Amino acid sequence: MGSAPRAGSNDEAATADAAHRQLDERTDYNRDYDRIVFSSEFRCLHDKTQVFPLSTSDYTRTRLTHSIEASCVGRSLGHQAGLELHAQGVKLVPSDLGTVVAAACLAHDIGNPPFGHSGEDAIQHWVEQRLSPPGEGAQSPFATEAEWRDLRDFEGNAQGFRILNRLQSRERRGGLRYTAATLGAMSKYPRPSVLPGARAKVKGRVSEKKFGYFQDDHDLALEAYRATGLREREPGVFSRHPLAFLVEAADDICYAVIDLEDSAKLGLVPMLRACELLEAVLPEPGRRKPPRHLETRMAQARAGAIGRLIPQCVQAFMDQVHALEEGTAEKSLTSLRPDVESALEAITDFTSEFGYRSERVLQIESAGFKTLGGLLDMFATTVVTDTPNREEKKLRQLLPMECFQRPEYAAADEEKPPKRDEAILRLTPYQRLLCVTDYISGLSDSRAVELFQRLSGIKLPT
Known about the structure:
The structure is a single chain. Helix content is 58%, strand content 1%. The protein is built from 20 helices and two strands. A hairpin with a 2-residue loop joins strand 1 and strand 2. Helix 16 packs across helix 20. Residues 1-23 are annotated as: Disordered. Pfam families: HD. Keywords: Hydrolase. This is DNTP triphosphohydrolase.
């Protein structure tokens, strides 16, 4: 569970990395964690929706605070699981497991576009409405069904893998070259958008619920997953890394508990009812008389619920540790404990009905569809064409040049990088569209709205 080869590295680079590490007291996993914290993509999460978009409250969580909180829970899950394994004679450093899970939790939402899951829906909707799969209708920009499905089913998890392995430190293969263990732990769905033989997803197989890498990143994904030792069930389709189940549990706990607290703080659900739902997670004998002040009661209920759920998920992990290592486990840790599953379902059902579907949330999510769809309308046609008109040439200039620079396409004797149009022509239409989704999904909520307003003439630069 704790091997640390770096994905995408070659012998020369590995030697240089080894020399550098001799002067650095951090472990490889600590370096992974620090690289994520210092990345621009991670900082951008401060203005990306967790549940409540463009909130005017300083209290409401964003994707950044959610990721940090999930990382804290993940560190506890990983460390406690490491202690249990160490007590059974497994040779590992428990704190290393905690660091790997914490790093993976930090990065688990790094690929989310503006407006969170609603932003994913907006990109998927636009592709479905505007672009045809190969062989259907108008000329398609896609060479294969899998390329079309990559964008028709656009997935933040796959975008996260792409960010860590390609978009960061673009000048070298493998990007920042995170350890295979960290990449494995953050990959909840280690499979492509189209399964072999175009078969359907297996019902109940949690690792196939979504997909985890784009066709453009196929080789890097195979290298990373094989370096981690994941079981390859079919070509390109892998079982989950055991630690990915702990990352998922940390996300599930925070998603349920924290989103309920935010809903109560925003006045979308009754504070008293929220406290009662969280307190129901605690065993009856362990419950104390709650404080009278509801804010204090909520803080205690939230901390108590998380403190109760962590050891239960660790126990579920240990109960099926052999199946996890063999790659045959296919159920989330929270679903393996009926008491945990029922408590979290009660919380998420309540929050979904009264929080996620509030009028303000739905209004802004609808506006997000218009925003992201509008930006895709502008930029997608601009890059797909080989002969841009005057307006399209101006729009091309707004896309960062780095979007189109790929080291593997550079000629060995090139003295300087190609010009923008030359760089674009080297890419397939599918790769050009990925450049656009790379750019748009990297925008914060506020930046996406502002850019759309300015390019639409609704709001001009001052």
